[in-house]
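Running this now, will post back.
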Amino acid sequence: MHAPLPLTRDLVLVGGGHAHALVLKRWGMRPLPGVRVTVIDPNPTTAYTGMLPGFVAGHYPHDALEIDLVRLARFAGARILLDEAVSIDPDARTVRLKGQAPVRFDIASLDIGATGKAPDITGFADHVVPAKPLARFADAWAGFLNGRATGARRVAVIGAGAAGVELALAARHRLEAEGATPRVALIEARDTVAPELGALARAQLRTALAKAGVQIWLNAEIEAVTESGVALSGGEFIEADFIIGATGVMAWPWLNQTPLETQDGFICVDRQLRSLSHPHIHAAGDCAHLSASPRPKAGVFAVRAAPILEANLRAALQGAIASASFRPQRDYLKLISTGSKSALAEKFGLAHGAPWLWRMKDWIDRRFMRSLSDLKPMTSDPPKGPVAAEVGSLLGDGQPLCGGCGSKTGREALSAGLSGLAAIRREDVLTGAGDDAAVLTSGDGVQVITTDHLRAFTSDVRRFASITAVHCLGDVWACGARPQAALATLILPPMSDALQAATIAEIMDAAGAVFGEAGADIVGGHTTTGAELSLGFTVTGLADAAVTQAGARPGDVLALTKPIGTGVMLAGDMALKAGGRDVARCWASMARDQHRAAAILGPVAHAMTDVTGFGLAGHLRALMAPNLSAHLSLDDVPLLNGALALAGGGVRSSLFKANQPPPDILDAPAGPRRDLLIDPQTAGGLLAAIPAAECEAVFSAFADIGEPIWRIGEVALRRPEDAVITAR
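Update: finished.
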């Protein structure tokens, strides 16, 4: 048996720009053993520059220009931190984040792009939407279109470089195509449009603007920008409902506050894309200044720098000397959309416009996006040679074992294994195996104790620790108890002492924040080294009296505090079939603690449990006494975004088969909604049987604290022909 190779180096990619996206794709195809890769970006997706004008013009839907960073990170075996970098300390080798503790690195690379210039003009920062960052601009444009009214729509573009011209023509085309009477103004302080292009290209763009009816204001001095338009110094006022800033780009301000050598705020790099002042830090894309051969800010340079960046990162991580040099071309083919499906091509001062050029640009852009989205999922290789009986059937289709609750033991195997457990002998042990937690007498009240652990479902140890802590607290909350103390059990994969220390610190920091918010302390634990990351907690809680799974009564309302679908979402993430935005929402749902929900439900619920490995149906079954049945409304059961589509596409968790109940347990129409009822949940919500008379007050209390809760069904007396759970 081969032991996993130890992790010894931390590579941190700050930003999800085009160069880093390509590095992740290449890394996934040929990872470097021993390296832990971390990607830091505030968003699960990033917008592709080349397709933005086409999106504005309506030629592409919003999701067509999104590079899915979550899927790329999963493909590369990297962890992704959905947070914003606000500083970097080259000497301490840490990146400071906006929402969590700093991240250490051995080698770092920055590809954070740039932000739009904000001229010192009254109202500019408040009322102008910069074209960069691209993701923010795309969201703002989509919001503007969704909120549009019929009739005239007025757009102003400040800055008439090639990008501004392209956006003005795209906006004019989109609004006209949707039946509006658009008025688009292009405002420029200089005396020409697109001064970075040759005279022939400028003339053709002027013709395109005139043909589209775009008003051009040259030598314009802006005095102020208001909610309703742009005021010029000569007294003219250009009315606008949406104002775009295409005034060029500037570096993110925090870069100038670091020890890194910069030029106009951009990181100075050599031909190997290393910082001139700190060679263990690399940079590419708009945030980098190519000191040996300065070039304008253009996505083409980031794309072409990616292979050089990846090669030199690999060399640095191996302790070798970077040798690959980036020598950007002096001129490059510029393809500029002209609103409709036509484009202008310019290079070496020559220019030509035609619809076939747009088709060529469209082919180039779609090919680039396919290169980042056609990712092969991780699969398990079948064993070679003879195997014991039943091995093949248990391996199934080679799907890797899920993390979280998807990797747990099935109900039947667990029940059979525990069937010989000795009966409780102590008088101070009130309940034992079978309920959410053991209940012990403690003074005038009770103490509950429970334990749980999870196999890692993400390489982001902070996120994993936070969700695991919420998951392990679930049994205490389900008993209506106040969390008291926790002991950690941690299995770390092999790694260097430095990485071990950093990983343990990250896990304890993240988990400690969850337990602290719940009112509990982590008081100790145990660590070992094993093949893969696993984390668990033994948790105690205190209560006057415990809420158990028994006690539901006919007429009770069934309420649920979280949507279901985490099993298929995590399986879809592993199979590279889940969208990054949906996976991020799933993580957020799992990480949402339940202490406020438990405080409301505990005093009134007749019975309560948390929904975890056995799925909603499996845990609801545990609440039903032999004379009771549950009636669910399938349409009222909340689902995570993307879960229904994944279930409908055949995505299943490892535990799905073992969770299948017989017909006398679950009567529901076949289909993905039924399948999600037995989908194993990780850090799922609380499921409570509430007296009908208390229902209105409970739902009102949840609304007051801004916590979600769904009424999904009711409890009834069971007739002989009824299944334990009926869902329609």
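The domain at 124-250 is CATH 3.50.50.60 (FAD/NAD(P)-binding domain). More later if anyone needs it.
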